Amino acid sequence: MNLRTDPRQPGLRYPRVLSIAGSDSGGGAGIQADLKTFSAMGCYGMTAITAVTAQNTLGVTAIHGVPVEVLKAQICAVMDDIGVDALKIGMLHSPELVRVVAWAIDEYRIERVVLDPVMVATSGDRLIAEETIAVLVSELFHRVTLVTPNLDEAALLLGGPISSIDALDDAAARLLALGAHAVLLKGGHLPGDEVVDVLAMRGEALQRLQSSRIASGNVHGTGCTLSSAIAAGLALGLSLPQAVAEARRYVLQAIAAGAQVHTGGGHGPLNHGHAPVPMHLLPTA
Fold it and tell me: How many Cα atoms sit within 13 Å of 82 on the Cβ side?
């Protein structure tokens, strides 16, 4: 482009959100769900892919990890040119990948970071190596703004199942004790007509977030979508509790809007595009 005729006006930019996560070939979760969510919430999405999965609504049939140096190159390419306002971290299947992400948070001083500790797919497929769990906790929990485990992931982190709503508060406190600054423990896998999540932040009272359960078999990628929506909210300048509340609203509406739609023969996706908003514009300063 000839810069002397560049029509761009100074002073405006998009809210920028980077997803470091795995690719879902079926489009319902992972990088694909993240980009759809960022766009629907008026943010500019970017990616650093950690793994390529062969996946559909029925399950995961193959995983191919991206080399560590390629992941690092993706992150640096984005950060050195475009920059980020918030970061969402998803599937990190090896300790080496975790350490690269920890390096990037420090190197680029990324302040708004949401970690979705992706360990088990909706289909029940295991997505993380056993030795990665301890490294994930030691290297990332204290570096991020929020950790968003579901009950299966929390059980792996804490070494035991969480079987009731009454156990959520204690489990959230124990997750904080692992080094996290804030935890959103998602209780959607518990039975009942109500879905109860717990937001725990250091030095603050626990918050229970409750909503009526929506009957739907199309919930593939719900966790990816929620964490991405929270990151988008943080990029837009919302406080953490505000970003969590707005993200839950978006996900609940996406579940409701996609409940009657048939996509594949298993766990279908949410309707990420149920109510998209125009791209937000922020001042460059």
Answer: 19
